[in-house]
Amino acid sequence: MPKVKDQNKVNAIYKATIELVTKTGFSGLKMAEVAKKSGVATGTLYVYYISKEQLINDVFVVTKKEVAGAIINSKYVKGSFNKTFKAMWYGYFKYCLLNPEKMLFVEQFIYSGYITEANIIKTNTYFEPLNQFLIEGQKNDYVKKMDVALIKAHLQGAIHEIVKMVVREGLKLKKKDMNTCFTMAWDSITE
Amino acid sequence: MPKVKDQNKVNAIYKATIELVTKTGFSGLKMAEVAKKSGVATGTLYVYYISKEQLINDVFVVTKKEVAGAIINSKYVKGSFNKTFKAMWYGYFKYCLLNPEKMLFVEQFIYSGYITEANIIKTNTYFEPLNQFLIEGQKNDYVKKMDVALIKAHLQGAIHEIVKMVVREGLKLKKKDMNTCFTMAWDSITE
Amino acid sequence: MPKVKDQNKVNAIYKATIELVTKTGFSGLKMAEVAKKSGVATGTLYVYYISKEQLINDVFVVTKKEVAGAIINSKYVKGSFNKTFKAMWYGYFKYCLLNPEKMLFVEQFIYSGYITEANIIKTNTYFEPLNQFLIEGQKNDYVKKMDVALIKAHLQGAIHEIVKMVVREGLKLKKKDMNTCFTMAWDSITE
Amino acid sequence: MPKVKDQNKVNAIYKATIELVTKTGFSGLKMAEVAKKSGVATGTLYVYYISKEQLINDVFVVTKKEVAGAIINSKYVKGSFNKTFKAMWYGYFKYCLLNPEKMLFVEQFIYSGYITEANIIKTNTYFEPLNQFLIEGQKNDYVKKMDVALIKAHLQGAIHEIVKMVVREGLKLKKKDMNTCFTMAWDSITE
DNA sequence: AATGAATGAGATTTCATTCAT
DNA sequence: CATGAATGAAATCTCATTCAT
């Protein structure tokens, strides 16, 4: 949580943190390197964040919010279930393909021991509209009857793993493959 | 006749490492704690593993092998596609539910910066039989036509995420839910 | 404006290193003790030198340069061969008597396994002018005809051994003895 | 000081110790390596020597005795001063050329902090006959009048330094050069 | 506020020595 | 006596954090 304002610095630190974690793995994330990469002094880092834990938590929350925004986009919520689901699924899938480092960041750190329980709970609320949307889908017999948390987990897990694989192997997904991926998702959740 | 190298110690170290990572997150994995928990002196750790990195890589490879063994089980390979797939899926799903710490361990460390590229490649080969099984399924028009790596990713990602959620929230999956989870998996990959 | 790197610290570290090696023998040189004696934190040592090896190499090179400076002193190079030689010999002899710890340091560490080959070569060049002076002396038939490296070795070895003995036994060299020592040196190299 | 008898082991340990110090410098001398190189277990080392310090001191004393033997050889003591001196000088010079690792060992360790004062004093007595010989030479006006310790230091220092140089540079001393070296030694000490 | 040198607690690793076999 | 696995005190080095400028 920044104490002061230079938004350029905040952005630079945020960017550097995400990039370093993606590059060196998060066990190698050093404050000195974050400082260097973001072009500020180590001391300055502590003007903006009181500790490494704070920095990581902050980056985590900000990123998680952005991730949620990629799925939950008000302009879609008025369409049919299928159309809306498709929009959400593609929204998230493409976001992950474009920002794998952010996707990885939140995935990695959630079990790292760095993120506070409070922040995990807090960021989960960002996905509440998605829950509502799926519950609505169940009421209308579109969606398999089961705890929506499990359904979300199924969808998210599948997307993440596919994207990680694509990124790791340096693949280029064709439109056809992406459509098949979507069909897998759709088939899995619908009755 | 000197003391002889002790497999019990290796096992104790392995167990301690997995448990500590699961408990404290692996940014908090300390050699001193591994030593303490496994009941050996710190120096002894270095009799068996030349460095922390080596220890983690070793635990990673051993665990990944065990994980692969949970899926690929020769007694199933003679059944129908559906039966075999079901056996594999349940085999893996239940393994993950019973050993979430091992599942987490391999998932976490793969992006930690600790695991060498060579070990990542090596452990991937353990899953080759699964690839073959899915390719066979595609030939017989059971399975959607797409790079099997993507299909595997979809299946694995979904399972992992569900299990992580179940563990995190302390849920107890009912038989019915587990069946629904399986149906999701089956529906997603079949044509 | 941040704190600025402090030459006083470098000097203090240098001094502490030499003194500790002289006092405890260098098998007992510990970074913690160097830090303590030079009045800095252990971490600070690593701000200035990336490792113990680096520290020792640095102290070695600096000292060797100073040692060379004790012999090769431009104000003498214009005199007769005898006068110049005498000036150099006394210059070095007295330097060693006054700074036996520095003489010992370079002598000890050269075979310690700590000094890199590059630094050994580098520091040898500091003595080039002495080579030239002796070669000149040979051309004018003052000096015995032989590889000047051997002549230098003879002179230096004799001085070092004498000084070591003097220091070890706590002797006080009388003027007469010093003159005899010089005569030994002079007689040994002249035709 | 061996507790027991297997002389082969004692010899192997002695040889390994000297060789390792010559190769890796003595700051890198490790008991485990001595054990390995001499073909015994680490535990066995401690059957023969109660500590590393003991081992090194023992090797030191044994070697120093051998070194003294190379100089002081009863068959020469009856000749003229010149002949005897020449025999001694060549005896020592050639010994050093043939066994530089032993010469280095004693030279290195004397200031390492490992050798006890008692052993330094003890080994000095081995050279007593040389002292007597030089004193006799002074009485007969062959040798410059000065503390014989200084004369010995001068001679020994010169020899050591020359040999070190020869070994370091991989030179091959010609007979003529060796004679010049002797002449330097002779000229330096005679009146 | 910004800097980066300085700090020192704490981590990893080493290695002389011990001890069970 | 011989072995080498086991030990743990102590060494080196790291790095999040502080602080003088």
From TrEMBL, chains A, B, C, D:
Report if keyword DNA-binding is assigned.
yes
Q: Which domain of life is it from?
A: Bacteria
- Kindly state which keywords UniProt assigns to this record, in alphabetical order: DNA-binding
DNA-binding region boundaries: 30-49
PROSITE patterns, from UniProt?
A: HTH_TETR_2 (PS50977)
Instruction: Give the SUPFAM superfamilies listed for this entry.
Output: Homeodomain-like (SSF46689)
Keyword rRNA-binding in record: no
Looking at the record, the residues that make up the HTH tetR-type domain are 7-67
Coiled-coil residue windows: none
Q: Do you know which InterPro entries this protein is assigned to?
A: Homeodomain-like_sf (IPR009057), HTH-type_Tx_Regulator (IPR050624), HTH_TetR (IPR001647), TetR-like_HI_0893_C (IPR054422)
What name does the UniProt record give this protein?
Answer: TetR/AcrR family transcriptional regulator
Q: Species name for this entry?
A: Aquimarina celericrescens
